Amino acid sequence: MGKKIYLEKCAACHGETGEGMMGIYPALSGGIGSLATTTPLRTVGSFWPYPESVLDYVRRAMPLNAPQSLNTDDLYSVVSYLFYMNHIIPQEFSLNEKTIHSIKMPNKDGFINEKEENINKNTPRDELRSRLGICLHP
């Protein structure tokens, strides 16, 4: 069901396989392991640290031409398909409000909380970003 919804509501902008379109609409799949390289690809699979964040973003902002138009079943179906495209869950996984918390995103540990004691407060944010290839939380 998620693939059908994706092809109807998402593929026009993000491509049939989530590859992105025309340099305007971002890729949604691929890029795992690329964030620390010189050519990072920020996708659902490579960048987002929490599955709930993906669900919330899609719920609030997508599809671009009709945000907040997906009903709950369609929302979970299309997000499930995004996770499947990124090899995060198997095809038969049933995504819902209970199972979403069990998903481990590939970049789960890629964000740094600056309040953690192991961060050198004297290291500039840009230097940390370039060294680690990750996003820093405020």
Automatic annotation (TrEMBL):
<dbReference type="Pfam" id="PF00034">
    <property type="entry name" value="Cytochrom_C"/>
</dbReference>
<keyword id="KW-0349">Heme</keyword>
<dbReference type="InterPro" id="IPR036909">
    <property type="entry name" value="Cyt_c-like_dom_sf"/>
</dbReference>
<dbReference type="InterPro" id="IPR009056">
    <property type="entry name" value="Cyt_c-like_dom"/>
</dbReference>
<keyword id="KW-0408">Iron</keyword>
<dbReference type="InterPro" id="IPR051459">
    <property type="entry name" value="Cytochrome_c-type_DH"/>
</dbReference>
<feature type="domain" description="Cytochrome c">
    <location>
        <begin position="1"/>
        <end position="86"/>
    </location>
</feature>
<keyword id="KW-0479">Metal-binding</keyword>
<protein>
    <recommendedName>
        <fullName>Cytochrome c domain-containing protein</fullName>
    </recommendedName>
</protein>
